[in-house]
Write a sequence for this structure.
């Protein structure tokens, strides 16, 4: 299936869809640091593009023979880590993405975002644009730890298929969910070399020490080592912070299910942000595989 990835970041969606068997024709983003990493890891082209400029973007895409557009418009304006002002500038890119899709009108599209988008009027605006263009819509929040990712990360997906009914894909997205959350030990075995690690809390009313026998908490765009003054929280599963450390940058990329041969470049601060913003590769593959299974069972859908 010929696909273009908009707001591709460093390529979590692209890689997951490639692993499921899709052909990524090209990718577009406006973030130089992420573009540089994407170029190092994919053979297809990536272009710098202001995706808020709908007309220019449509002109860029119109000559492709596309079956699908995938993408993750920036979610910071919806995120619990931000000020949650959906009119901040980046929030409107959700609507820009919908306008691009509706004008190109591929058979399929996939939009990924944070769960909090469900509470926004920008999502309602986007849904109205998709419906006007003739798409049947399936929306779902998936916990990555039930989709082959050792991370408790909830993400929103909106999948559209021209001429279909709403919720057409819901059963396919749900039926292959694991009955058990994937832990770090499930994913890495004994290869990490530690049993407990530090993850900096949003505030010290929350615990900060986690076990590899549970899913990782959400990988965020910042990463700190354990401060020397840290005092144990009652919910921390250890009696001492001796030997406890934070995760390395590369360990965080592995928890996002990027493969070991994925190439990372840039400053530590930028890399932490890029990795934290990425779509887990195995979560993207899970969604991509559900779509292919639906097409296989419903040949008229292709």
């Amino acid at each position: 299936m010929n696909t273009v990835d908009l707001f591709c970041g460093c390529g979590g969606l692209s890689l997951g869809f490639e692993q499921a068997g899709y052909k990524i024709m090209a990718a577009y983003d406006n973030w130089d640091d992420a573009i540089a990493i994407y170029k190092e890891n994919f053979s297809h082209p990536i272009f710098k593009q202001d995706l808020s400029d709908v007309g220019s973007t449509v002109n860029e895409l119109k000559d492709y023979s596309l079956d699908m557009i995938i993408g993750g418009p920036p979610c910071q304006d919806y995120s619990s880590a931000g000020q949650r002002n959906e009119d901040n500038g980046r929030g409107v890119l959700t609507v820009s993405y919908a306008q691009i899709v509706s004008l190109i009108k591929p058979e399929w599209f996939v939009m990924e975002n944070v769960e909090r988008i469900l509470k926004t009027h920008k999502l309602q605006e986007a849904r109205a644009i998709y419906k006007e263009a003739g798409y049947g819509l399936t929306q779902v929040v998936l916990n990555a730890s039930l989709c082959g990712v050792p991370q408790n990360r909830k993400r929103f997906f909106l999948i559209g298929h021209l001429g279909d009914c709403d919720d057409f894909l819901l059963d396919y997205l749900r039926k292959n969910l694991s009955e058990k959350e994937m832990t770090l030990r499930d994913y890495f075995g004994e290869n990490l070399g530690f049993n407990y690690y530090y993850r900096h809390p949003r505030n010290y009313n929350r615990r900060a020490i986690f076990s590899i026998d549970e899913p990782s908490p959400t990988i965020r765009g910042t990463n700190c080592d354990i401060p020397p003054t840290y005092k144990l929280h009652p919910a921390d599963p250890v009696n001492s912070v001796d030997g406890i450390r934070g995760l390395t940058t590369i360990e965080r990329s592995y928890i996002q299910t990027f493969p070991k041969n994925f190439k990372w470049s840039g400053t530590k601060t930028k890399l932490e942000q890029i990795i934290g913003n990425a779509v887990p590769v195995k979560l993207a593959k899970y969604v991509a595989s559900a779509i292919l299974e639906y097409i296989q069972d419903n040949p008229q859908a292709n």
Notes: Residues 281-297 form the longest helix (17 residues). The chain has a mean pLDDT of 93. The chain has ten helices and eleven strands. The longest strand covers residues 135-143.
